[in-house]
Amino acid sequence: MKVLMVSPKARTGGLESLRKGNQILQGLLYVAAAARDAGHDTTVVVADKDNVDSYIKRYHPEVLGVSCVSASYPIARELIKYVKQQHPGIKTIIGGHHATFMYKETFSDTGVDYICRGEGEEVFPQLLAALQAGNNYPDISGIVYMRNGSYFNDDKIALLQDIENLPLITRDLTAPEFSFSPKIVSSRGCPYFCSFCSISAFYGGRYRKRSVKTVIAEIKEYISWGYDSFWFHDDNLTVDTKWMDEFCQAIEDEGIKFHFNCMSRVDTICNNHALIARMAKVGCSLMSIGIESGIPEVLERMHKKISLEQIRTAIKILNKLSISHNWYMIIGSADEFDTPKHIEQNIKFFCSLPLGYVVITILTPFPGTEIFNRLVAEDRILHYNWEDYDAMHCVYKPLTMSHKDIDAYFPKAYVRVYLSKGWRLLPLFYHSFKRKAMRPSTIISAIKTMFLYKVMGMDFRKALNK
Ligand code: B12
Ligand code: SF4
């Protein structure tokens, strides 16, 4: 069948705007690659309702697949509604974390034909085969649809038994005008249960890993195409320390040279100093790590299972090993710690650390997460304007402050945390460029944001989106 896969044209801010947006979501590429491997003519694009017609004219799809996060759901929603109205012959399907958890609302908002709850690599080709055979109501666990006013197959989130043979993502999957940079996924899921993170809900706490051999073969393939720097999209690359040791050994044995960025945790770094040193030696240039809060009680409530001591030690270890670091900070906790005193304490903690990059977000209750379920139960969700679920807006009712007070801390925290680093940012930038840990455009966007906000007096969120 002819299949068009659409990544919504992003209007969300935060990190995405710093990266200048419009990256194709990696999950969609995996599903597209699986459809291609099953013999379907598949193309992936970035689009919204205003330009999707140009791709429909170019590729004549019979099926349109869409992916989104909560913040880009409104773009996906308008796109699907438009396609349903203007091209009723095209079958539509949406997947991803947001659609998985908000499938009832997604059906009623969009009239989409199918929703994929969970991982799509197996079930999407099964759906395409059924549609090709003229069966519009197949029984595929994870592919949900509405029949006679009831939901069919909505009782389960489809997960792959093992992820060893994930399809290879290749340049030819995307329309030629979009850039391509290979990302690696060596594992899916995470055994931790942080209250704000939708990974544990989506994967049910399951953690699956590919073999070292397969991952190395994939990296070698991409290196043979001329790439030498990769981002691991694993939720937490260092969960399995034995695997990581074997991976480092294999890189050395094979004599392959590349840089890589990944996500990790402070406790793993503290408990595995020698392993982290080995990772640095074989090419690990940047680690992204969630600190979230400098208040031990908040960390405990978030089930983060890390201490302030571990945070400080991990930073020292990474600095010593010259691995660049990118940290996450959360403003707000949706409990009694939402007070100016505690938010100030959190900001001061981040100012006191010899950190590299810090991505500051406002606590956002993403569907499926523990925090979302709690706030819904307590009737403390302010609104469901999903475009504001971009981690830059407070969308819940704090207990003792107003949501506007929390919002106001977002720019303040950025300015104070970055100004506290002062000249120390310069060697950091230099080091990151050298080891390809960060693109120059990211730093330029960050500097531009600060200029527009501090010198030109522009609203901080608007400046981020510029
Ligand atoms: C890497 C990453 C990014 C990268 C994306 C780069 C890229 N090219 O993909 C960057 C940094 C740009 C990014 C940005 C953001 N991200 Co992000 N990101 C991730 C991360 C860590 C990995 C994504 C990934 O590749 N996953 C692996 C793939 C295989 O999984 P998947 O996407 O779920 O796809 C599978 C299924 O969902 C399903 N599926 C998905 N789409 C479709 C479509 C069809 C048709 C079908 C059949 C199936 C299907 O099949 C796929 C294969 O199994 C996830 C966490 C995670 N593990 O998903 C967070 C995550 C997706 N991000 C999140 C958020 C909030 C954001 C931002 C809003 C943050 C911000 N303030 O800027 C922006 C929004 C970007 C945008 N406009 O879309 C949240 C989303 C929660 C939510 N409900 O919204 C997540 C889940 C992390 C979390 N906090 O819990 N992100
Ligand atoms: S925040 Fe990180 S450690 Fe916590 S559950 Fe999510 S992926 Fe795992």
Task: Please provide a written account of the structure.
Helix 10 (241-254) packs parallel to helix 12 (273-282) and helix 15 packs parallel to helix 17. The protein folds into two domains: 2-152, Cobalamin-binding domain (Rossmann fold); 181-465, tm_1862 like domain (pyruvate-formate lyase- activating enzyme). The protein has 20 helices and 15 strands. It has helices at 14-18, 26-37, 52-59, 73-86, 97-101, 103-110, 123-132, 199-203, 212-224, 241-254, 266-271, 273-282, 296-301, 308-321, 340-352, 370-377, 403-421, 425-434, 440-454, 460-465, and strands at 2-8, 41-47, 63-67, 91-95, 114-116, 143-147, 150-152, 183-184, 187-188, 208-209, 229-232, 259-264, 284-292, 324-331, 357-362. The structure holds cobalamin and iron/sulfur cluster. Cobalamin is lined by residues 10, 12, 14-16, 19, 23-28, 30-31, 65-67, 69-72, 93-98, 116, 119-121, 124, 185, 197-199, 233, 235, 366-367, 390-391.
Question: How is this fold's topology laid out?
Answer:
Blueprint: E1 2-8, H1 14-18, H2 26-37, E2 41-47, H3 52-59, E3 63-67, H4 73-86, E4 91-95, H5 97-101, H6 103-110, E5 114-116, H7 123-132, E6 143-147, E7 150-152, E8 183-184, E9 187-188, H8 199-203, E10 208-209, H9 212-224, E11 229-232, H10 241-254, E12 259-264, H11 266-271, H12 273-282, E13 284-292, H13 296-301, H14 308-321, E14 324-331, H15 340-352, E15 357-362, H16 370-377, H17 403-421, H18 425-434, H19 440-454, H20 460-465
Helix pairs in contact: 10-12, 15-17
Bound molecules: cobalamin and iron/sulfur cluster.
Residues 10, 12, 14-16, 19, 23-28, 30-31, 65-67, 69-72, 93-98, 116, 119-121, 124, 185, 197-199, 233, 235, 366-367, 390-391 line the site of cobalamin (B12).
